[in-house]
Design goal:
The structure is a homodimer.
Chain A lengths: L5 E7 L3 E9 L2 E9 L3 H17 L3 E8 L30 H7 L2 E6 H12 L8 E6 L3 E7 L2 E2 L33 H5 L1 H8 L12 H20 L3 E5 L8 H13 L6 H4 L6 E2 L7 H14 L1
Parallel strand pairs in A: 1-4, 4-5, 6-9, 9-10
Antiparallel strand pairs in A: 1-2, 2-3, 6-7, 7-8
Helix pairs in contact in A: 1-2, 3-9, 6-7
């Protein structure tokens, strides 16, 4: 028993890191959560956490789901590096090299939202539903789309948080806060976009503020687009903004109104409560998805 | 030689049908083009065209790429039927049954735009580019997305022509002509949408009409969304509206402006002339794709 294989998983977020050692997706042996500080200091904590298990040889692969923007082009000289990011100190950080060198293990990398999608598909809300879509609405907006249980690989990493949607300036004069696109989805509906309108954090805006209706509408436009383009069999909405439970029925209703019966599927017409859902693994989707990455790298 | 296998392909359009008999994708033995009239009369012409080759046993499978909306759910009792369509006489038409009965062959069915995508991927502009996207902009707007050379299968057939995009009513007071969504992409940028603004067909609107700038902008918003969500390695724009060659450079420029450098790929930044392109097979993409369907069904 003492020499059974273990797996390591890291969810690297802009705010916090979650690390886990597990022998299965549902059985964590150790778990650690700490704040994201400088790269050097943060990596030191990660290394300290995993070292006993990598030294013993029980962990040979660690899955890493990380915040970005991330260079995921295997041909690139900076594969696995974080690109330009507003997060101080993290632009141009190699996310793989230090861990591989210090721990002597293989690192299997993907984006945080792809990891969350993988976690939910393995043992969460989208288990058995292919294709599936995980959208996170928080500091940024991003999506992980799985087909045959794998993230979609294309020209580049998908960046579906930046889609363009209708924006009625009369009703909502906010110009949007995306430095690239102004009023794309992320520019209109992310946590910082909410804060930009009210000078208060999305967390403290009261449940009965009329703004939430607009928030639900923007998200519904984007979901409609994702449904028409990707045709997922399950949509999971996670991230900080979606901690407001009351948003779910609002969004579902607006998706139905916006699609207006066009997509003739029971999932949308009758069973939308089980079609657009919160994550089942709560805030562990990402780290469990990182374990999935580690396991798939060894199989 | 006389008993070599042949393949049949049908492109069933709302305006015309194209039928072909071929022994390879680049070698047609016979081809026929006729107007789409009533289902009974049109099917009669199709049957008449193929009968010599099905009777001789040389054609055992016919690929069919058809206009829609189409029921492509294999579980459905009306699989292969055209659903409610404004095309007189064609609502609720079984596209498979009559051909299968009269010709004694297997029919391999997909949408017209998926067939066009398959044709271009087999021997056209997207050959070697995976994933790829074919968008048709004509009477309607639709898209065929191929991953690993196969159309994306999900909850339902994708309907990416109906995505929602920004619409500035001050600049363009046209309400949109989509009966389901008003000013979705199809409601703003399809042939009938152009006609709805000018009381003249898109075909007769002069090249220097300032409207084309708006048309290119709407298409660029949609392409940006497709790029962010699907990350295709090649985008082909076909259909009647795209017969206007001058739209290509306009659209490419607006895609670059709208994305604003966000997607760091040479395909978008430097080589967009070879990234967003017209079909290479001209108006034969669909019927060649139908032949691909027939061949893949037998392999």
């Amino acid at each position: 028993m003492a020499f059974d294989r273990l797996y390591g998983g890291i969810e690297a977020g802009g705010t916090k890191f979650v690390c886990a050692v597990a022998d299965g997706l549902n059985h964590f042996l150790e778990e650690s959560l700490f704040n994201t500080t400088s790269p050097a200091e943060t990596f030191q904590q990660v290394i300290h956490f995993f070292q006993p298990h990598t030294t013993s040889g029980r962990i040979k692969t660690i899955g890493l789901g990380t915040f970005g923007p991330l260079d995921l082009d295997p041909q690139s000289a900076t594969y696995g590096f974080i690109k330009a990011t507003p997060k101080p100190g993290w632009s141009n950080t190699d996310m793989i090299g230090p861990l591989q060198r210090e721990l002597g293990v293989k690192i299997k990398l993907d984006t945080d939202v792809n990891a969350a999608a993988l976690g939910e598909f393995a043992c969460g809300a989208s288990a058995g539903f292919d294709p599936s879509l995980y959208i996170t609405i928080g500091t940024g907006i991003g999506g992980g789309y799985l087909k045959n249980g794998k993230p979609l690989q294309g020209l580049v990493n998908t960046e579906m948080g930046h889609v363009r949607i209708p924006h009625d300036f009369e009703r909502d004069p906010f110009k949007g806060c995306c430095p690239f696109h102004g009023d794309c989805l992320e520019g209109l509906a992310s946590g910082p976009a909410i804060q930009g309108r009210f000078d208060e954090a999305a967390e403290t805006l009261p449940d009965d503020d009329p703004f939430w209706d607009l928030e639900a509408e923007y998200l519904a436009y984007a979901l409609m687009n994702y449904i028409l383009v990707l045709s997922p069999r399950k949509i999971i909405l996670g991230g900080g903004v979606m901690q407001r439970d009351f948003l779910f029925p609002l969004i579902r209703r607006k998706v139905q109104e916006t699609l207006n019966g066009y997509v003739e599927s029971r999932s949308l017409l009758e069973n939308i409560e089980t079609y657009i859902v919160p994550p089942k693994l709560g805030n562990r989707s990402g780290v469990i998805g990182a374990l999935v990455l580690a396991m798939s790298a060894e199989s």
